[in-house]
Specification:
Layout (H helix, E strand, L loop, with lengths): L1 H23 L3 H19 L9 H25 L2 H10 L2 H11 L5 H20 L1 H5 L2 H20 L10 H20 L9 H27 L4 H24 L5 H19 L2
Helix pairs in contact: 1-3, 1-10, 1-11, 2-9, 2-10, 3-4, 3-8, 3-9, 4-8, 4-11, 5-8, 5-11, 6-12, 11-12
Amino acid sequence: MTWLLGSIACYSSIFILFRLAGKKGLPMAPVLFVNYIVSFAFSVVITSTWPGFEWWMLSSALLGLLFMVVFQVIAHSTNTAGIGSTATASKLSMVWPILAFSLLFGEWPNPLQWIGIALVLTSVLLPFFMNRESARSWLLPLTVFLSTGLVDTLIALHGRPEWVAPEFKEALFTFIFGFAAATALFQSRKELNSLNQPMVLGLGLILGLINYGSLYFLLGTLESKFLSGATFFPVNNMGVIALTFLAGVALFKERPSSTDWISLMLGLSGLLAILWFS
């Protein structure tokens, strides 16, 4: 349970920090560059076991590239479509790893857990069916849904011991964040003069540590077998939706509609159903 709570807290904090950066008018590319340099440096320091050449080193390059691209899309969507819509789209991508774990590894949820998953999916879709204005601004969140789903699935698969040996988990982080930092440097090279801003450095530092923690706790939860891969993602993602929803209300004065509140209650009911019948 500790691993799961850590994952929810870290992922929620990322959305909150993106929203804060937008409020302060900070350029996101330098913030993301600092973030990945910090994540990379931290992972290098704590990595104690280094492998020889492994196939996953190649796929980690793809993940590093996708990390930077997805973070930029999420940051833009958070400040355009709102923190709630973006977090919802990101976490709706849970359908990707659910299908991957079910089809590839036979980790099918039991019938009662499927009811919980259906409630969670209904909860994240309900506001967009009920609110036509939200539906018209769905292009950016849709991009978040597709890209985040791909990243979540690849990360989850790399967390399998048959893909990456457990003793090389820290090394995997180093490769992923190293490639992400290189991508961020390339994309932010025209804005590096912003690195002299204390808030850019400070936010990047905090985001980098939280970003590392999000990956660490996600894989830790999957390795703990507290939940199967197919049921972990609905629980984790609904927790993130609930926390970012409340943060949007409390910190950024967003005003959810009655439909949004009903959606939240449906999702929490689904989350409890999944946990209760695990």
